[in-house]
Amino acid sequence: MRLLLAGGGTGGHLFPAVALAQRLLETDPGSEVLFVGTQRGIEARTLPALGLPLRTVDIGGFVGKGWLKQLAVGPQLAKSIWQSLTIITGFKPDVVVGVGGYASGPALVAAKLKGLPVLIHEQNAWPGLTNRLLARWTDRICLSFSESDRAFHHGRTVLTGNPLRKGMDDCPPIPAAQPLLLVFGGSRGARAINDAMVETLAHLAPLKGKFEILHQTGTEDLERVRAGYREAGWNPDSAVPFIQDMAAAYARAHLVLCRAGATTIAELTACGRPSILVPYPYAAADHQTANAQALASKGAGLLLPQSDLNAELLGRMIGDLFHDRERLLSMAGAAFSVGKRGAADLILQECRAIIKKSGW
Where would I find the Glycosyl transferase family 28 C-terminal domain in this sequence (predicted)? Predict the structure, then answer.
């Protein structure tokens, strides 16, 4: 299979696409993949390091911009569609998969103009604008959340889950060892969570020595957060800039404090880990709140809006959960029950189905 993956911009869009590409290359050695993204997105830094090929187009977003800037997007969009047509003509893909983000739109439009089979993968509980606009022209829409089906025309959707990095599908149950609180806000950290966690340490003093903390802060906040741990009498080495092996971190975790991006939600459910979810309030269409609500409604996590985030409340929530192992295990079971494992294989299966149906 020759697979073209279009989109990116953020890790939430890119990493599932990477997992999909790596799974195809692993299971079908004769296959080829190509990514289409932008120079400004995370894909421009990440894909070369992974040895995965990337071509870029010139396109930016227009949501939230003034009307003059929105008008300027028109010529840019036409140019990016032409660039996508050139890329597709050269690569000759069997199928084009859109994963959301600015570059997804032009590539999917170009693919339809070429008569190619097109599949969309939607990571969030509420779909992004690009996927909502292009859904009616796609051959298949693969969903990570059943809740997102309401935004699309019924009949072409299939619930597959979200492809995950290696090791997540093999996460063991919550261990019997000393409890670990895993804290992170994405690869670059989240200042609101970092600050709240430092302030919460004083409220967790009665539990000192009864559980460990592993806190991914991002590089910018690292020294400040470490100083806060040191001043509160906690181990400053609990704070690290980046966790390279997230699968191992989840395996040790009893409770996770984090944002509610689609990839994070997929990892929590694949690993079966209870969570306190603090959605990023400025995410497009507030999709992180929708993601968190989907998990909280099933008893798998607790939703804590950033507007309500304070040290006293967070300390009470963490303390209550660590004092109630039965509740932690119940939340873990609920999370695991809604997880979709083997998502990459399911999406590749759908790709092959629409290729066969189209006669390519």
Answer: 181-345
